[in-house]
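Q&A log
Question type: sequence-to-structure
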Amino acid sequence: MQNDDSQGSGTTLDATTAPEWLPSQFSILVVDNDPAHAQAMTESLEKTGYRCTVATSGPDGKKQLEQNTYDVIITDLVMNDFDGMQMLGLARQLLPESQIIMVTGHATVTKAVEAMQLGAFNFLEKPITPNRLRAIVSKAIEAVQLKQTNVELRRRLDEKFGFEGIVYASIQMQQVIDRLKRISPTDATVLITGESGTGKELIARAIHQNSPRKAKRMVALNVRAVSENLVESEMFGHVRGSFTDAVTDREGAFQYADGGTLFLDEVGDMPMSTQIKLLRVLEEHQITRVGDNKPIKVNVRLVSATNRPLEAMIDDGTFRNDLYFRLKVVTVHLPPLRERRDDIIPLMDHFRKAFVRRHNHAPCNFTPAVTKRFFAYEWPGNIRQLRNFVETMV
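Response status: OK
Response body:
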């Protein structure tokens, strides 16, 4: 590799670290049909630095919501023509990332609690002190920040594990991507096949990230990495006392992934006794923890992967035929890197940039001679081997 001072150094942003916010960055809509009360709340908030807009009637507040964007909406619960509950419904529809605070008198506290059940952040009971107002608004702003951070994290997950995050240039991988786009929105069970190191877990994460289950967890469990006597505990969980080291109850991967996706890697290494129990889970959509007899309902999409020839294993009696057909409702085959050489150079460049950033290395490029050798190499370890080679060189 050679240094390339003409390239700018890469930078990364840690999305888990919330940036510092100033009150002036947030806009607040105050809706109250008592102009004096609305003005008092506005003045208190503006002293803190928030940008405020006042609406002195329900219809005026409705107009403001339809024409502008606000982070927090403070609305009186009882108003003529367009009340606080209607304001809440409209805000949830037009500004789903905003937070709504209801203002109520003592007689309508029950209604305010109902509003919270429908999505309001909190309520303020009259008379409202400035300190109480600012404290509730500050908490609402924190909730807005958290929503914004979550949106950014979801966007980054989409970039990393979405189809756009898969690096390829070959026709073979384009065919794989086209297939993924068709199957990801469904709830079908998927079996991913391919040699070790071809990126099966990345494909599983792309399926999850582009499915209706993306807001829930994807849990990955490598069957080969778990000792045979603990596989069932890892998958289904256990209750206290079910075996020597079971000192507490523990959820398994199926429960932990409830509502989301479970990725079982190296499923061909699963013991026969566990295969029978997995088949029952796929048929009945419920699990039973080790040491327990109480069934627990689970709602999980199963994606599994293997680098072993399952059909040959069926013939020699080491893998169940009925489980195989349950797992392969849809199959995705990942070709080895030597069969899609057009992906080698794009992957080299992708890993080079990533490791330059990770190791705070000066920008660098591969020489033409290195690129030529990498392109011609067979890569028996596939993408994992290529990645390790590039990191070593960086």
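Response note: Confidence is low (pLDDT under 50) at residues 2-19.
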